[in-house]
Design a protein that fits this description.
The protein is built from 17 helices and eleven strands. By secondary structure, the chain is α/β, with parallel strands linked by helices. It folds into two domains: 258 residues, Rossmann fold; 82 residues, 2-Layer Sandwich (formyl-coa transferase, domain 3). A six-stranded parallel sheet has the order 3-2-1-4-5-6, sandwiched between helices. α1 crosses α8. It is globular, with a radius of gyration of 25 Å. It starts with 12 loop residues before the first strand and ends in a 9-residue tail after the last helix.
Length: 400
């Protein structure tokens, strides 16, 4: 599947040297917004290609199997709308191809450990010497020395490590899924990259920027940081239930759970009306938010007695949009949700071969004029070698 690129970033060309999840997620956001994202992969490809589940007609890039696709669902989710060029950056001829691609690009994004690109002779300084306007963005576990030294700069990092360092595991008494310490830094990197390109159009100069996964997790907890600064006491471990607002929690139903959040005083009155418990509006144990926080166990018991007798659908019907609430849905529920269809939040494409069509999450950023869409299926390894090099006017070397 290939169709014209659409979106507000159609004029940008991004060289994507990312792997796994954090970097590819950020580069994928740019691709979804229409940027020309060229994914540079080593001879064995991005290792994320080999993570299941797979389609029936699959060929692993690490084997001699024959198949129409060489990627699993995780790779597909963050690499659609990109084109793949396979380069061995240890070869001089392939390094030169890479540099020629960067010569005409607006930005490069990577998420390798600090020093890897420098050892290949392809660091920011080398690339910016040739293209003064290029923006070089990276996601690292603990940042890059160019923007601030860290005693952990040479350490590798994955989602679990960054969540642990940044306090999220403590706050939730466990890992948060999906991998928020990959997804949020990747999002910040995309935002920073576009911001730097915007600045370069005025200054005429590119620059280097990085997002530390640890830093991103700390920023993600702005409220907890402020609370500690105000009180000098860390929040207790585990889900931060009934600390500032109540109810603001999950409650059992006949067929699962539902979330109910009382953010304003009138929300409590509306909830009591839906429960047919007008007596709780003025009860000293529940009339105010402070009272509900002090008597949280009793308040929870009253709400659970109501929700447990009803289904999720029945509760949502009784609340009728009067206050923030939502059924706890699994992916099967979401695929059938009218909102998802109305907002066009599932894009469908054909991965090729004897595989069925696949659905991928669409861009949640909606524009009135600059429409976005899925225009390029997740690429096979090196699928666009000749196409991209031809567009850039680069001759194929003998060892390519």
């Amino acid at each position: 599947m290939t169709s014209p690129r659409k979106g507000p970033l159609q004029d940008l060309t991004i060289i994507d040297c990312t792997r796994a999840l954090a970097g590819p997620f950020g580069a994928g956001l740019l691709a979804d917004l229409g940027a020309n994202v060229i994914k540079i992969e080593p001879p064995l490809g991005d290792g994320y290609r080999n993570i299941p589940p797979f389609l029936p007609d699959y060929a692993s890039p690490l084997s001699e199997e024959v198949g129409a696709t060489d990627f699993g669902a995780p790779f597909a989710s963050v690499n659609r709308n990109k084109r793949s060029v396979c380069l061995d950056l240890k070869k001089d001829s392939h390094k030169e191809i890479f540099l020629k691609l960067c010569d005409k690009a607006d930005a490069i994004i990577e998420n390798m450990r600090a020093g890897v690109m420098e050892r290949l002779g392809l660091g920011f300084e080398t690339i910016s010497d040739r293209n003064k306007r290029i923006v070089y963005a990276c996601v690292r576990g603990f940042g890059d020395p160019r923007t601030g030294e860290s005693p952990y700069a040479h350490w590798p990092s994955l989602d679990a490590a960054a969540q642990s360092f940044g306090g999220l595991v403590y706050a939730n008494d466990g890992l948060v899924t999906p991998a928020i310490a990959d997804i949020f830094p990747g999002t910040l990197a995309a935002f920073g990259l576009v911001s730097a390109i915007h600045e370069s159009k005025t200054s005429g100069k590119g620059q280097f920027l990085d997002v530390s996964m640890y830093d991103a997790m700390l920023a993600f907890q702005k409220s907890a940081v402020a609370q500690y600064s105000f009180t000098g006491k860390p929040n207790p471990s585990g889900l931060q239930r009934a600390m500032t607002l109540y109810p603001f929690d999950l409650f059992p139903t006949k067929d699962g759970q539902v979330s109910i959040a009382v953010g304003q005083p009138h929300h409590w009155d509306l909830l009591c009306a839906a429960m047919d418990r007008g007596d709780m509006i003025n009860d000293d144990r529940s009339a105010t938010n402070n009272a509900r926080l002090k008597n949280v166990e009793w308040v929870e018991e009253q709400i659970c007695a109501w929700t447990s007798q009803l289904t999720r659908t029945e509760i949502m019907a009784k609340l009728d949009g009067s206050l923030p609430a939502g059924p706890v849905q699994n992916m099967s529920d979401i695929f059938q949700d009218e909102h998802v269809a109305a907002r066009g939040m599932l894009d469908t494409c054909s991965p090729g071969g004897d595989n069925p069509n696949i659905s991928l999450a669409a861009s949640p950023i909606k524009f009135s004029r600059s429409k976005t869409t899925l225009y390029q299926s997740p690429p096979r390894l090196g699928e666009h070698n000749k196409e991209v090099l031809s567009e850039f006017g680069i001759d194929l070397p003998e060892d390519f």
